[in-house]
Structures are given as structure tokens and as C-alpha cells.
Design a protein that fits this description.
Helices cover 41% and strands 17% of the residues. With 475 residues, the chain is α+β, with helices and mostly antiparallel strands. Strand 9 and strand 10 form a beta hairpin.
Length: 475
């Protein structure tokens, strides 16, 4: 027997009840090349780790000549040098550190300066690329979450698992660990590191695929449930705030009506007529305010039940705007606001219900007046536009824009301000109102196959856009 051979005698290794190999004996002579062939989970990697001293056998001896040094490339490719060649040269003796050919003969590097990432890609390790370069992960087109994460050459550590978990928030990544170890400690360690499921080698591929499908389905169901709960909680919170606000809004005018009626009753025959007249005026104003809020509630309930009637015909939006301007004149004068109507040189003819669109424009202008600073300007303008119907057909339309110089709307609330029970956090400051006006406007405009939306101006304030079809929409 050669004295320069690596000798292995009666080598055994087992984990708990699993025996990887038993009483293995062989020797590796100089200039010999050997390969380990076997099924997954049957100990090839473990045997190599024992040979290089990274793991201890259960039984047996390994004899390595004193003048031997073992250099190797790790299975998990944790490089400390720029190239594969340089990494392999770390195993050379100090006096041979410049003899690259010794490493080239062993690892058969065809290109001296082959980069590590090239070697990684050759090994099929796209997961390393994902983690290091933040490239998109392969996803399922329907659910948009990762179904399978596959890595040939990357060791999954708790740190990398944490990175994987943080890659998405809405769509958690299921992590299934596959290992040749089945002892309790290894299983506990895997789940502690963040594994969703754990199976042992040899791999039963049908079982693996079904496990993955079940895990992904369960996670998707959990995600949907969480989203539904969040949506329900948000709706419940908005409804609670609305009811609290409505109770205040209804109680205020009702209290004013009762108070001035009581004062007037006590002053009959005593107070002069002009004082009694002021009491009656306050009662009338409060009654109108109360009626306005009750009408909002009734309108919304009718719209949602589909019981509101519409009489749609061709009309002139400019004429509606002029009418609204007259009705809001006292409010404009009170705050010293300038209202500019810009026809834009386009036709303002459209297809709509005059009464309902009057209600929409009145709401938009009233809001602009309410939240505009004194001595500022409100602009109502017209322009040509188009609408895409549910059928995909594109039709001509006219856009009416109400632009103010007020406080604007937070960007994340530009859509939600049209929801029922919702008021903007910037405008919900005690200025009054039910918070139903824009929700009613949205229902009315939707019935016209139109569009209504808001955006903030580049300088200050907000603009509300109303888009209506120019011609009749055939059902």
C-alpha cells in the first residue's frame, strides 16, 4: 500500500436513526481522480466534509500524509477572492502561491479571470443573483407571489431567509426546506430559521409539488383574509366617524331651531318685530341646513338602491354653471372670492340630467368656496376630452374643471374622498357638512357613464374634474 495515499478505514456516519454509510474503506492514490455518485441525501457531501475535516465521523479512521494539504471549493460558493482560480489557490503551500497551473489542472478553469458570478450562474444559482442584486424573483403570473425558490449552490442561512421574507409585504414567500437530516434538532433549527415546511431526502417530487401548492394556497387565502379584514375595519371606522359627525351636524341646527323658537315664544308681545324677525330668520336658516343634510342621506340611499330617476337629454353645461354662480353669489361675496368662468373656446354641450348635474356642480363649487382663503380666485373651465366606456368604446366628451387656491388634498386621499362616510383629513376641520356630497356626485356621474376625479394643483389648491359624454350613450 502506498505511503503517500489518503486512507479511509471502516468509516461510518449516521444521524439519529438514519445511516448514511457504514464501514466504508478506500484509499486515494497520488494523481488519482475520483467521483462520488449517489442519490440525494445519501451522504456524498457529508463524506467530503469528513475528508476535509469539517465534520467528524461516527466511527472509523482517516489517514492523510503529513506533506498533504487539501484545497477545495465549497459547495455553497462562499468566496473570499475575486475569481474561482484565486479561491482555489488558497489551498496551495506558501512557497507555491504563484503556481496557478496546479489549481488549473484540478478545477479545469478554461479562463483565468472567470468571475465568481459566472461560476454561480453555471451552477444554476439564480437565487444568489436575486439576493445580491435585488433582481425580480420569478413569480406566478396569476397570484404574483413566489411559488418555488430553487438554489443549487447557495446555503440558506437565517439572514438570507430574513431577506426573502422582506422582499414582499403583501405576498409572503413560502420557504420549504429540503434536507438529508431528519433528527429533531435539525428540524427544530429549520423551523426556527423561518421555514414554512420541511421535507427530507430523497425527494419525492410529486409530494414536493403538492406541498408547495398547498403552502401557497394557504398563504394566499390568509393574505386575502387579512386584506378583507383590513378593508372591513377601515369601512367600520369610517362609518363610526360618519355617524359621530352626523349626530353633531344634525344636533346643531336642531338645537338652534329649538332655542330661537323658545326665545321667540317668550318674547311675543314684548320684543320689537325686528328682533322677532331675526329669530325667525335663524330658525329658517337652521331648518334649511337640516333639510340639506337629510336630502343628502335620502339621495345616497336612493342612488345605492337604484331608485333615483334620471331624465337625460342634451344640455348646456355653461348654462348650468351660470345658474350655480347665481345661487352661490352671496357666499362668494361673503368671502370676497373672484369666480372666473373660462369657456376655453369649446362647446359646453353634453348629454346629462340637468337637475342632477346642477347638484354635482353646486357641490363642487360650494366645496371650493368653503375651503378657499378670502380674496382668492376660483376658476371654472371647459375643454374637449374623451371617455372609454365599459364596452371599450371611446366617445367624445367635455371636461368641466373647478380649480381653487385652497388647502388641497393629501395625495393618498384623492380617490377616497369620493367614498361614502369619508372626508379628507385636511378638510375635516369642523367646516361643516355630512361628508356625503362627493359620494353622491360620484354615483350621479357614474350613472351618466362619465367620470369625476380630483388632483392637486402644481402651485396650491385642488382641481375637481367632471367629464360627461357629448352624445347619448346607447345601452
Amino acid at each position: 500500500m502506498s505511503t503517500s495515499a489518503i486512507k479511509v478505514e471502516n468509516l461510518s456516519k449516521s444521524f439519529s436513526s438514519q445511516i448514511l454509510f457504514e464501514d466504508a474503506s478506500f484509499q486515494i492514490n497520488p494523481r488519482e481522480r475520483i467521483g462520488l455518485v449517489g442519490r440525494n441525501g445519501h451522504g456524498k457531501t457529508t463524506l467530503f466534509r469528513i475528508l476535509v475535516g469539517e465534520e467528524q465521523p461516527s466511527n472509523g479512521t482517516i489517514t492523510i500524509p503529513r506533506n498533504y494539504r487539501i484545497g477545495y471549493v465549497r459547495q455553497h460558493l462562499e468566496f473570499t477572492r475575486e475569481t474561482v482560480l484565486q479561491e482555489g489557490m488558497r489551498g496551495l503551500r506558501e512557497e507555491d502561491h504563484h503556481k496557478e497551473w496546479k489549481v488549473e489542472k484540478i478545477i479545469a478553469v478554461a479562463e483565468e479571470n472567470a468571475r465568481i458570478n459566472r461560476a454561480i450562474e453555471a451552477g444554476g444559482n439564480w437565487l444568489r443573483k436575486v439576493l445580491d442584486e435585488k433582481d425580480p424573483v420569478a413569480t406566478n403570473d396569476e397570484s404574483e407571489y413566489v411559488d418555488i425558490l430553487k438554489s443549487h449552490n447557495l446555503k440558506i442561512t437565517p439572514q438570507r431567509l430574513a431577506i426573502l421574507k422582506e422582499m414582499t409585504i403583501d405576498n409572503p414567500i413560502p420557504i420549504l426546506m429540503v434536507s438529508g437530516l431528519e433528527d429533531d434538532e435539525s428540524v427544530d433549527k429549520a423551523f426556527s430559521a423561518g421555514a414554512t415546511e420541511y421535507i427530507t431526502k430523497p425527494i419525492c417530487w410529486p409530494l414536493l409539488i403538492h406541498r408547495l401548492k398547498n403552502i401557497c394556497a394557504a398563504i394566499q387565502a390568509e393574505t386575502n383574509l387579512i386584506r378583507a379584514k383590513q378593508s372591513a375595519d377601515e369601512a367600520n371606522r369610517a362609518k363610526t366617524e360618519f355617524l359621530a359627525n352626523m349626530s353633531h351636524e344634525l344636533r346643531t341646527p336642531m338645537h338652534a331651531i329649538l332655542s330661537f323658537a323658545s326665545m321667540g315664544n317668550d318674547k311675543v308681545g314684548v320684543a320689537p318685530d325686528d328682533k322677532l324677525q331675526r329669530y325667525f330668520s335663524r330658525i329658517e336658516e337652521s331648518g334649511k341646513r337640516l333639510l340639506f343634510m337629510l336630502n343628502d342621506l335620502l339621495d345616497l340611499s336612493k342612488l345605492e338602491a337604484g331608485k333615483m330617476s334620471f331624465l337625460i337629454d342634451q344640455g348646456d353645461l355653461l348654462a348650468i354653471v351660470k345658474k350655480v354662480e347665481g345661487e352661490c353669489q352671496s357666499l362668494l361675496v361673503e368671502k370676497e372670492l373672484k369666480l372666473t368662468i373660462d369657456g376655453g373656446g369649446v362647446s359646453s354641450k353634453a348629454w346629462f340630467d340637468s337637475d342632477r348635474i346642477l347638484q354635482v356642480i353646486t357641490n363642487l363649487l360650494s366645496n371650493a368656496i368653503k375651503f378657499s382663503p378670502s380674496n382668492s380666485e376660483i376658476i371654472i373651465s371647459f375643454k374637449d376630452d374623451s371617455l372609454t366606456l365599459d364596452s371599450g368604446e371611446k366617445v367624445n366628451a367635455v371636461r368641466l374643471t373647478v380649480r381653487d387656491q385652497g388647502i388641497g388634498i393629501p395625495e393618498n386621499e384623492l380617490e377616497s374622498v369620493f367614498d361614502k362616510f369619508v372626508q379628507s383629513s385636511e378638510t375635516n376641520t369642523g367646516a361643516g357638512g355630512t361628508g356625503l356630497g362627493l359620494a353622491i356626485c360620484k354615483h350621479i356621474v357614474d350613472f351618466h357613464s362619465g367620470n369625476i376625479f380630483a388632483e392637486n394643483n402644481s402651485d396650491k389648491g385642488a382641481s375637481f374634474h367632471l367629464v360627461l359624454p357629448r352624445n347619448e350613450i346607447k345601452e
